[in-house]
Amino acid sequence: MITEEEIIKEGERIIAEFGEYAREFSLKDSFYHGKFGRCLRFYVKTLEEQEYRLLFHRNGVLCLTNSMHFESFEQFFNSLSPAFRDLFGRKLQDKLQNLVIK
């Protein structure tokens, strides 16, 4: 069973990984849910200024604002943030280009 400390660390990792693709990305709280188990609730403001409350649990990410379900944060941003796709695409292209140059 995952501990409170472990899930908080996972939340911090998620923010560190995807925070650059959001105007604001913060962990609001952690709690246990009967259906989903240990959960984290995040607040996200996308680069397009859209605001979402997200629930992260063992089955993926649930967008509380409009009840959409995603398997990952990348899927969430790809679905709801065109700016994420642009930044992610550029970052991926740079990484691939660096591999080719080496």
Structure explained in plain terms:
By secondary structure, this protein is of the alpha+beta class. It has a single domain (4-101), classed as Hypothetical protein (hspc210) (copper amine oxidase-like fold). The protein contains 3 helices and 5 strands. The chain has helices at 4-18, 73-80, 82-101, and strands at 22-33, 37-46, 51-57, 60-63, 68-70. The longest helix is centred in the last third of the chain and has 20 residues, at 82-101. It is globular and about 50 Å long. The protein starts with a helix and ends with a helix.
Give the gist of this structure.
The protein has 102 residues and is an alpha+beta fold. The protein has three helices and five strands; from the N terminus they run αβββββαα.
Number of domains: 1
CATH homologous superfamily identity = Hypothetical protein (hspc210)
Straight-line distance between termini = 43 Å
CATH topology: copper amine oxidase-like fold
Q: What sort of overall outline do the alpha carbons produce when their principal axes are compared? A: globular
Largest sheet: 5 strands, antiparallel
Mean pLDDT: 92
Rg over alpha carbons: 15 Å
Assigned CATH architecture: 2-Layer Sandwich
Q: Count of DSSP helices?
A: 3
- Label the structural class: alpha+beta
Strand content: 35-45%
Spans where pLDDT lies below 50 across 5 or more residues: none
Listing every helix as H and every strand as E from the N terminus to the C terminus, the arrangement reads HEEEEEHH
Number of strands: 5
Spatial order of the strands forming the largest sheet: 1-2-3-4-5
Q: Tell me the helix content.
A: 40-55%
CATH class: Alpha Beta
Domain GSKIP: 66-99
Pfam families: GSKIP_dom
Protein name: Oidioi.mRNA.OKI2018_I69.XSR.g16213.t1.cds
